[in-house]
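User: I'm writing a tutorial on reading structure tokens. Could you give me a worked example: one chain, its sequence, then its tokens, then a sentence or two explaining what the tokens reveal?
Assistant: Sure. Here is the example chain.
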Amino acid sequence: SGDLTGYEVEATDGGIGKVDSTTRDAGPNGIVVDTGPWILGKKVMLPAGVVTSIDHDDGKIFVDRTKDAIKSAPEFDETRGRDDRYRDVLGEYYASTPASEWTPTRR
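And here are its predicted structure tokens:
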């Protein structure tokens, strides 16, 4: 998988931010996204299961959720990145938000 820090993350309806360096601490089960000004600096953790593809040439990660679904996700707490209960809450949240029917278009 390699280090994905700095990769842009694309929801089904647009970019949501970049992969944060804390992803390295989150383990192999997900990525941490720094949403920057979009949600006022909030960081969100996305389970690996929502990632549909990674474009290493363009440095982009595509996920199968909308911006709204990600915006409403439980906020990432760096102290709980490896906490099983937090991961369960996150997993349940994403399990309850169905994947968007969308296919990334290659330019």
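What the tokens reveal: The chain has a mean pLDDT of 84. The longest helix spans residues 84-96.
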